[in-house]
């Protein structure tokens, strides 16, 4: 049997693994494929090193973990590469511009103007169904900055202050498809400067999405509790929207920001031959941003799946909403 090499992502982390040796031969070996699936369930994320940097390889590696799912919004750019192997690949490409009015999505943070910043979140929080996982690569990255952070909800639950945890556990958080950083309510530690050029079109689609509910804490089949509150796109607590509950969500969000700099999180510095998969039902992720003068491109595939705990406020299902958008 062809083999791969597996190691811990870091000695001080309770999650994550690093895998070397992925190529077309190892991907064809069902024993290796099952090893990867088992490793992923156990560790929550895998960093694949020295992988062929192509859409074809990204899709093939993604399908080891399940069928692919396209992004639910039409304004999200897709990869230009044609053919079946480009299925489901979305393109998040920042190109520098001297004209801030072109809508590059800039923020000021710690006295610096940065681009491609994303606060802590989980993907598709605005849907009733969550995707199982995402696979990401970065063909173009800034020479400084641009790291992607991954925070393990299991470790986050273990490290979270009990007084705050007791107040938020058992509650559902309300999310909307409003990605504007200028309207973000909780855990804001930056100053928004410009919105993305696609924001008006996205808001038109967002108006068709009901608000979505997801638990702040949930329990996996394997028994671990997962802290799974993403401050970005959160707007309140279900059934108790009030200044008091907003203060609670803000306090929890700022604690997530703080723990994101410790051993609840891993910050990945990209190489073009890296690919990373993370469990979207377990992990939060963020992007630290980079100097606006640098180009940055990431390509993502999305893997279908759900945990069955989310729902829309008005009882609609995601298929109905997506048909309305289409």
From TrEMBL:
Keywords, ordered alphabetically: Dioxygenase, Iron, Metal-binding, Oxidoreductase
Q: Which residues form the TauD/TfdA-like domain?
A: 11-301
Show the InterPro entries listed in the entry. Answer: TauD-like_sf (IPR042098), TauD/TfdA-like (IPR003819), TfdA_dioxygenase (IPR051178)
* SUPFAM superfamilies per UniProt: Clavaminate synthase-like
A Gene Ontology MF term for this entry? dioxygenase activity
Q: Which Pfam families match?
A: TauD
Q: Which residues form a coiled coil?
A: none
Q: Which family does it belong to?
A: Belongs to the TfdA dioxygenase family.
Q: This chain belongs to which protein, by name?
A: TauD/TfdA family dioxygenase
Q: Which organism is it from?
A: Novosphingobium album
Q: What is the lineage of its organism?
A: Bacteria, Pseudomonadati, Pseudomonadota, Alphaproteobacteria, Sphingomonadales
């Amino acid at each position: 049997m062809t083999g791969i090499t597996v190691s811990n992502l870091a000695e001080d982390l309770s999650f994550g693994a690093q895998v070397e040796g992925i190529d077309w031969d190892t991907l064809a070996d069902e024993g290796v494929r099952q090893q990867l699936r088992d490793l992923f369930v156990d560790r929550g994320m895998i960093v694949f090193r020295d992988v062929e940097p192509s859409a074809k390889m990204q899709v093939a590696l993604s399908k080891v973990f399940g069928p692919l799912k396209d992004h639910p919004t039409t304004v999200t750019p897709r990869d230009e590469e044609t053919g079946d192997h480009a299925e489901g690949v979305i393109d998040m490409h920042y190109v520098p511009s001297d004209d801030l009015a072109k809508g590059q999505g800039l923020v000021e943070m710690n006295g610096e103007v940065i681009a491609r910043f994303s606060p802590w979140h989980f993907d598709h929080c605005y849907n009733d169904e969550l995707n199982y996982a995402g696979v990401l690569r970065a063909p173009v990255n800034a020479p400084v900055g641009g790291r992607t952070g991954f925070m393990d909800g299991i470790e986050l639950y273990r490290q979270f202050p009990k007084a705050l945890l007791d107040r938020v556990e058992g509650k559902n958080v309300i999310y909307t498809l409003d990605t504007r950083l200028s309207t973000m309510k909780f855990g804001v530690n930056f100053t928004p400067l410009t919105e993305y050029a696609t924001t008006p079109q996205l808001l038109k689609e967002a108006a068709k999405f009901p608000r979505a509910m997801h638990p702040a804490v949930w329990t996996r089949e394997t028994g671990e509790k997962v802290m799974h509150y993403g401050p970005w796109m959160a707007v309140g607590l279900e059934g108790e929207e009030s200044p008091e509950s907003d203060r609670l969500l803000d306090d929890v969000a700022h604690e997530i920001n703080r723990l994101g700099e410790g051993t609840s999180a891993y910050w990945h510095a990209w190489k073009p031959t890296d690919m990373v998969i993370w469990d979207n039902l377990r992990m939060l992720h963020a992007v630290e941003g980079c100097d606006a003068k640098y180009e940055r491109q990431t390509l993502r595939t999305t893997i279908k799946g759900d945990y069955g705990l989310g729902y829309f406020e008005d009882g609609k299902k995601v298929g109905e909403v997506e048909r309305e958008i289409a």
